[in-house]
Amino acid sequence: MSKLQKLCSTFYKAFFFSFLPLLGFISMILRTLNILIVDGASLIMQQLSEILYNKASVNIIRFAINAEDGLKALAQDQTDMLILDINLSGMSGLEMLRKVKALYEYTLVVIILTNTPYTIYRDECLRIGADFFLDKSRDFALLPDLVDRYSHKKMLVKSG
Known about the structure:
Helices cover 58% and strands 17% of the residues. The chain has 160 residues and is of the alpha/beta class. A 5-stranded parallel β-sheet has the order 2-1-3-4-5, with helices on both faces. The protein is elongated. The N and C termini lie far apart (50 Å).
């Protein structure tokens, strides 16, 4: 290795390592979405966490196994996006959606993700105020794209 190559290599390493803290800070700024998943199925929550934790825009993912715990979680921390199942033990997801929309109408994106994709449920959820209604068996793969689209929209609102 020539002296010039060594000098360039040394300069590159010094430059790169001096900016690592800045890159970490920028990454923290870009991770803006706080997501709450309310679903009674642990397998679904595990799959969702695996696909959503890899999204650069996701800051925190919290979980609740029923609507009551979900409402408590919403009251405790800022949440940008709620992924909600209709079929929950205790209070139904529909009832939770009604309460959520009464409390957080303009500040929370709600995605219904359910194994009950019947038109009557879809129409009711959208009427109440859900932003999206997805079938777990057919539309599961759409979630990462929805998260990306919402995070870009949120960043534009913040900067604009």
